[in-house]
Automatic annotation (TrEMBL):
Keywords assigned by UniProt, alphabetized: Metal-binding, Oxidoreductase, Zinc
Xref: Gene3D superfamilies: Medium-chain alcohol dehydrogenases, catalytic domain, NAD(P)-binding Rossmann-like Domain
Family: Belongs to the zinc-containing alcohol dehydrogenase family.
Pfam family, one: ADH_zinc_N
Keyword Membrane included in the entry's annotation: no
Protein name: Threonine dehydrogenase-like Zn-dependent dehydrogenase
SMART domains per UniProt: PKS_ER
Amino acid sequence: MRAAVLHAPGDIRVEEIADPKIIAPTDAVIRLTAACVCGSDLWPYRGVESLDGPMPMGHEYVGVVEEVGSDVTNVQPGQYVVGSFVASCGTCEICRSGYPSSCVHRVFMAQVGTQSERALIPHADGTLVPLPGTPDADLVPDLLAASDVLGTGWFGAVAAEAGPGRTVAVVGDGAVGLLAVLAARQLGAERIIAMSRHEPRRRLALEFGATDIVSERGDEGVAKLKELTGGLGAHSVVEAVGTQESMQQAIRSARPGGHVGFVGVNHDVTLSGEELFFSQVHLHGGPAPVRRFLPELIDLIWQRKINPGKVFDLVVPLDEAPEAYRAMDERRAIKAMLTL
Ligand SMILES: [Zn+2]
Ligand SMILES: [Zn+2]
């Protein structure tokens, strides 16, 4: 089958690799309907994460089950499914407590690869959610977004306790940040302040439900946000970047007693204990337990109440994955979808 494989920083090639095969009785193999490139794929692409040997890329997926192992009972061949970017058993104590992304048996799909025609899904029973039927073609981007960026933005908003009467600030205008805006709107937030300086992203943030836009970054962004919130800061802040600057901006943007949901994959962030101590904020985040939210998100998409697939502003065939990576790396695209 064809798959996008990273050979070295900046060197993505679409090439033939072996078709996935059922190994464990709990595995499934799916044929992808569409694939996509994630902001977190850019970390190894940029050489920030080290690489030992060629690596099949991708971790988001929607598709049709082709084959299941002998222990799989929740899904069957022919069913359309969506799953999280973390495969999880669904039965361990951590899964049952709502944190499948830290399942004691978890497998990060990035280690398996899904920018390909087919993908192996470990722990199929715990991981995959069958759709109510065959999705209309225009719902495919929305369902694909649910696999990671929507679920991650949603968790960011839930972790930040976005809800009625609350002012929510979102740091980061990538797909996750924009979908955290959508999530905050769905969760009933009163005011949603998106921090973005890029025109197409600001427009999408407003479309998703942002009420205010702040274009300043870092401490200037914090000052502007405080100005908008009577000097207090936001009740809820979603951090959707993962850098030192964005984490600091998020914590400093929250009011005492406020909540910060941090879902940007952290790279070399160090926090001052003293600053944390005096900030009096709640911090909650990490790899989003997307599987927990999937049934609800699929339902909202199926009923056409949300349209998260709007974050895909570049659609190219899988063979043009190198251009999809370049466009995202250069911030020419918010998120690229790969058609199959
Ligand atoms: Zn992702
Ligand atoms: Zn588990």
